[in-house]
Specification:
heterodimer, A: about 450 residues, alpha/beta, TIM Barrel, 2 domains, six-stranded parallel beta sheet, 17 helices, 10 strands, about 35% helix, about 10% strand, disordered C terminus, B: about 260 residues, five-stranded mixed beta sheet, three-stranded parallel beta sheet, 7 helices, elongated, binds iron/sulfur cluster
Amino acid sequence: MQYTKIPEQLPVMEKLKILSDAAKYDVACTSSGTSRGNNGKGIGSCFEAGICHSFAADGRCISLLKILFTNECIFNCRYCLNRSSNDVPRATFTPDEICELVMGFYRRNYIEGLFLSSGILKSPDYTMELLYQTLYRLRTKYHFGGYIHVKAIPGADPVLIEKTGFLADRMSVNLELPTAEGLRKLAPAKTRDKILRPMRQVQNRMEENRQEIALYRSAPRFVPAGQSTQMIIGATPENDFQILSVAESLYQKFDLKRVFYSAFVRVNDDSALPALPGGPPLLREHRLYQADWLLRFYGFEAGELLSEDRPNFNMVFDPKCDWALRHLEFFPVEVNRASYQTLLRVPGIGVKSAQRIVKARRLGSLDFADLKKIGVVLKRALYFITCRGRTMYPVKIEEDYITRNLLYVKENLPPELRGEMTYRQLSLFDDGMPLSAEEQSILTVGESGPAAGFSRERRIL
Amino acid sequence: MTTVFLCEDSLDGILTGVYEAWGSRLGHENVRLKTDEADTMELFCQYQTVRTDMEKAEKVLRTVRRRMGEKAQEAVCYAAACPDERKADAIYRLIVLGMSMEDGRQAVNCLQNPSVLLVEKLRYKAWHEAERMLGFLRFQELSGGVLYAYMEPPYAVLPLIAPHFADRLLQENWIIHDGRRKQIAVHKRGSGWFLADAGLLNPVRIEERSESEAEFQALWKVFCRSIAIEERRNPTCQKNLLPLRFRPCMTEFQV
Ligand code: SF4
């Protein structure tokens, strides 16, 4: 084996530097999905919507102590900084070192919890056992009740994965690349099947656990915040349609809570990897997140947004707007009569404003002034709707005409894509309500969590 | 002639003001509530200074809860935390409206009423601010193990965030210090928390850090630096999500 040997005793400071640096490409750093008070014995609670504790220089939310257990690895995935053929400084934590760090950080309110991933040390089983030991100690010896997101290592003994899942809030297995073909090329030690197996296991166990909980309310919880995964975007030649279809089937067939998309950062100089002169494909990543929202909350299907003939997202218009422009036969819709599902398809109307419209129109028919108050973005919606049978201005329902006009209504891109542009919010969420910090960070990072808000904390005094 | 009730800028101050204004029997249209100092005295107004009275405040809050529901109580508490000079009067109008309705719970939904709308907007602002503080607050460990956090928030979020930490850090002794309002929240291990005057703090003790404090601060700074992806560097985005005003009290931004 070629990798550098671990120096015997690195100080924790050095380890933290190496092992957080090596973990930073994992995007799923959020703490949402579990709500839990202190158990009375130890430290910690979980907040449904997640809490951002800081923001790093790249604008991404810092919520969890995101580290690898080790950056040693027996595998040699081409895109990965920790691959065995790279000559990089290596380090490995001990379970207690991680526990001390989590406790020290948590008590000072630096973090919501731990995000623990790892390179493969010796074997998948050996590594998974170490992750389990760490979580076990953290929960039982240190009585840590905060959030834990842990990786399930593909190829590890299912018994180990199950035991670990009872200690974690969220588990994830990274899909890494969208297709089996991509894996063969860049991560030959991993196969689609090897990755999907633990994913299926976690899904089935969660389902059983739901029944156990229905029977005994005090049954232990298995991965209560659900399962997620992530794909690297732009390292392999898959198109957006392929990627979105994969995401769709993961949601449908594996009941995933979230799929994350990670714009490829070229960390290794390797002829198998594409050169990216423009930097990581951030706008593409962003379009995928938008489309992902459309799948999960807007009732869209991948096949409606893209097709074999149009396999990639429009870089000028967001996916919903793009869809609307190609389906003008659908419009205009009458706001006072259209179903909720139909309203959701109108550019400029988000989930919140659609819900408000449905509620408000029971009390009387709505006009454009009402829509504005409700939070509809009229400058986008006006081409697609009527109120009491009338459009807001005399407009033509015609692709060229609308396209030209919408080009003036610049999209609200998230800050990291903005450049000289100065808009505040992203159109898809642009229904008038200010966004919570976690919601805003979704726009740049990925996680959602419907802004469930303060539910528990709301009790006052 | 309008009578202006000048109350202290705090939840209890405003609630006492509501009590006094109501009890004055001058008629709702003839009274107004204000929290700011009387430097903008108006002619043809009579001014009456309200002495904050915890019992009266408590009575009003209980009534709001009973007659107008939890949502209204929450709206009042959060709105009162905002730095907005219109808040006291808006809270008063909301309560007057709620009491006049058969089902007081509906009052918070009457958004066509400007006072109700204002209270709702302020509630949202304060809630948002408090939510951010839940993440941005930083504790330091004092020698002896007490956790101490210092902040200078423009909103009076201390009573809004304390319950969260009382639950999360149940087994810790902690103090959160609002330097702007000279107020502290104190929590004793395993029990509840209470608000107190910051004058109770021993200024020498809060400067004594525990042995490991400096090390954890250094570890945290290292982590915050190494977790950012250089290729995605974006200080503008960082500034939007974490405005500069929060940073002086945050460990990772201190040199
Ligand atoms: S298994 Fe994971 S850590 Fe190891 S080289 Fe592949 S991606 Fe990197």
